[in-house]
Amino acid sequence: MSVRTPGSLPAELDDAVAALTAAGVASPRSDAEQLAAYVTGHPRWRLALTATISPPDRERFRDLVVRRVARVPLQHLVGTAGFRYLTLDVGPGVFVPRPETETVVGWALDAMRAAGRAEPVCVDLCTGSGAIALSLADELPGARVHAVEFEPAALAWARRNVMSIGRGVTVHHADVGIDVTGRNLDHTSRSRSTAGSTGHVPAVVDELADLVGRVDLVVSNPPYLCDDERDQVEPEVGRHDPPAALWAGPDGLAGVRAVAEAAAVLLGDGGQLVIEHSDRHGSAAPALLRAYGCWDDVLDHPDLAGRDRFVTASRRARG
Predict the structure, then answer these.
(1) Tens of pLDDT along 149-190?
(2) How far apart are CA 176 and CA 212, in angstroms?
(3) Are 192 and 246 in contact, with CB atoms under 8 Å apart?
(4) pTM for the model
């Protein structure tokens, strides 16, 4: 039985939980335990059986709690984030992967398995830490996976994770062409082409020129927050996630547009598109794809919490 004497591990945990609760952290007990496990090297389940913590570990733990109270993301403090069956390195400059995106990957995996291709070609646009790309490579044996990122800091994290996890993912530095100015909101009034709504060919298509028309799956978690949400996001998001991974113009759909433009060129006939979006876009994202005229089977899907989360479509056969 653990002893709650001053300076003991149980007492330190209780103090941390109280401080994190007062700071508005959503999961104070879990966060305190994860920080303690990180500092002591014990698995979380052993913390309840451990009464003592060394003075150096105690000071380090208290310092991390102070930083978490200041709303530095937990994942930045411990240096990793779990995603499906992987543990990814994360930190400043890269978007911390969220559990909601695991559902997106699950659908993509099911679609590729159902297609029965032995070596599907998969492209992850706006890869960030590489979470989606690495999960596809991990769970889809034989897949040839390409991960694309433009922001230099995020690109470095993706390359680091590919090196450390050791899966067969090719990382590309290329611009997907996300326009957050709002100039491209009228996507329904332009002439159509094989590139989607505007005929614009994003730079990523040049980078992946050898794959044009041969890709089986394009999946993406692009930026999708609306400009009017800037004062509403949690401090962990607004202060620490890179802006390029969050903001997608006045209507929050600039990322969806850019990914759809690139995917329309990259995918082969019948290839699958999967795009994560805001829970505000359960109707708008599918409507955007339907307006392009090159997508079939457009459907929206909820996450495990029942919130609108991602849209899927198949590339219509070229005429």
Answers:
(1) 999 999 999 999 999 997 789 999 999 999 888 765 544 333
(2) 14
(3) no
(4) 0.91
